[in-house]
Amino acid sequence: MRFSTTISLLLVAGVAQAQFGGFPGQGTQFGGGGAGAAGAGAGSAKQSGQTGKQDAATGTQKGQGLTLDPKNVQTGSQSSGLDKDAEAGQAASDTDNANFINFCTGKTITNGLQVRAGSCNGIPMGDIPSATQMVSAVFTNPQNNQVIAPNTAIKFSVQIANLQAGTFTNPDNTYYSAPQALTGGKVVGHTHITVQDLGGSANPTKPLDAQTFAFFKGINDAGNGNGLLSADLADGLPEGFYRVCSMTSSSNHQPVLMPVAQRGAQDDCVRFQVTAGGGNNNKGGKGGQAAANGQNQQAAQGQAAQGNTGQQQAQQAQQAQQAQQAQQAQQAQQGGGRGGGGGGGRGAGRGRSVFQRRRSFAERTINH
């Protein structure tokens, strides 16, 4: 066999081995390639698994994992509260070793919806502010017991402290779906205005039906930027007695949570009347106050006038008394002159006689 033929056969065999069998330790495109592909697949799967673990770890760090991080376990939930310093009449707390993470199992979950039949919400309560930044509200309009004309526009205004107002999520599908959050230590959220008819009396004794209201408005803006939030009722209200209240909430509409139990209320309510002859809008209370001030001013002026009149009368009486005393003194002086002697009396008589004599002399002179 020629040398060139031998080289050609060796080359053909080598190519065949490379294509089908493969050299030891090498994958091929077909037979050995399957093993190579499997190895590559295993490597990819391993890499994907590592990536998944990394993603899971990242999710856990972001609070998005499906397992409870042991660092977040609150041992306070493991105590009924009756084992330490409990007072008589206090109830035992429910307990759970895993923060009640599965509390809603088997129940209708809220899932961002307003479920009128009731539901269970498993979302954490969230961030809670410090005691120095608790939410507090007061109505500036209407004022308590203010009288407003029927069917006239009303601007409801409430001043709220320690609320980062202006955050209002979609209540149709994010209701209670996220925890309360803080910005700069203040609760992030908004407030609502709700008006109810008191039923013909300013002081009802029966609790009102919470499902019934005359006006309701969620305020989703930041107001004037300094805590003053307002809602307008253009058509006003019919005659009656009403109560208006604020309902302050975090972004996802849950009532705001505070750090301590002993505190002032977070919301405010005032009562007002709508009747014919009442002041319009936010001038009613001021008008009533102005009227009261006017009455007070009139009363003060009347008292001052009476005082001046009395003083004048006293002065007049004093002047009359002084005049009377002067007249009496003059009369006494005149009487003393006449009684000082007969000559005095005669002198007075002669004086008048001299005048008469002079007059007679003149008359005589003319006649002659």
TrEMBL record:
InterPro entries: Appressorial_penetr-assoc (IPR053216)
UniProt keywords, alphabetically: Signal
Signal is among the record's keywords: yes
Region (Disordered): 32-91, 276-368
Residues of the signal peptide: 1-18
Biased composition range(s): Low complexity: 43-52, 289-333
Domain of life: Eukaryota
Biased composition range(s): Polar residues: 72-81
Protein name: Ribosomal protein s17
